[in-house]
Design a protein that fits this description.
The complex is a heterodimer of chains A (117) and B (112). With 117 residues, chain A is mostly beta strands. Chain A contains no helices and eleven strands. Chain B is 0% helix and 54% strand. Chain B is built from no helices and eleven strands. The chains are: A mainly beta (117), B mainly beta (112).
């Protein structure tokens, strides 16, 4: 099993450009998440999904959109990138929180380092 | 929304010294998890605490969940250079079903 994979690993954008980050998981997890990590800020939730076809806003959703057309994939889009979106982006997935024994433990991908100039 | 405070932000220790990081919430938690992130890596799950007053050990690591389920700690005995990284607590509870609220993390540096 590959676990959680993310593409690309690195990306440099100019202000105003758009891009999509792809997250894929092969663990049949119901829940998927997108976080951004900035120095001293910990991990902040951008958007999340509790199942195929559903998405919800997290703590810092502005400037981002997401889609979950397939259970195994969760896409994060930046329509018009801004320098404030320079960050490391992590995708994570988990079983349904009610699942016995597994709880809501999250499994993270390797991250995407994004720089917006 | 739910907030989790984690202290200290940084900790520098000599190899062999002990290390502790603390996590506090203003609300009662259903469970708390701990993750470790190595430099340049991604967060990796360490452990989950569910019961009031629970204590769990993993070799040199001891995890505690407070009696009121509002605070937690991670203690490392006799640190090694392999312990270097950022340790995060992550809280679940209240209206945040299925979501975790992460603390800011404690960056541990171990000097040989």
């Amino acid at each position: 099993n590959a676990g959680v994979t993310q593409t690309p690993k690195f990306r440099v954008l100019k202000t105003g450009q758009s891009m999509t980050l792809l997250c894929a998981q092969d663990m049949n997890h119901e829940y998927m998440y997108w976080y951004r990590q900035d120095p001293g800020m910990g991990l902040r939730l951008i958007h999340y999904s509790v199942g195929e076809g559903t998405t919800a806003k997290g703590e810092v959703p502005d400037g981002y959109n997401v889609s979950r057309l397939k259970k195994q994939n969760f896409l994060l889009g930046l329509e018009s990138a801004a320098p404030s979106q320079t960050s490391v982006y992590f995708c994570a997935s988990s079983y349904h929180p009610s699942r016995r024994g597994a709880g809501d433990t999250q499994y993270f991908g390797p991250g995407t380092r994004l720089t917006v100039l | 929304g739910q907030q989790v405070m984690q202290i200290p932000q940084y900790q520098h220790v000599q190899e062999g010294e002990d290390f502790t990081t603390y996590c506090n919430s203003s609300t009662t938690l259903s469970n708390i998890q701990w993750y470790k992130q190595r430099p340049g890596g991604h967060p990796v799950f360490l452990i989950q605490l569910v019961k009031s007053g629970e204590v769990k050990k993993q070799k040199r690591l001891t995890f505690q969940f407070g009696e009121a389920k509002k605070n937690s700690s991670l203690h490392i005995t006799a640190t090694q250079t392999t312990d270097v990284g950022t340790y995060f607590c992550a809280a679940a509870g209240g209206t945040s079903y299925g979501k975790l609220t992460f603390g800011q993390g404690t960056i541990l540096t171990v000097h040989p």
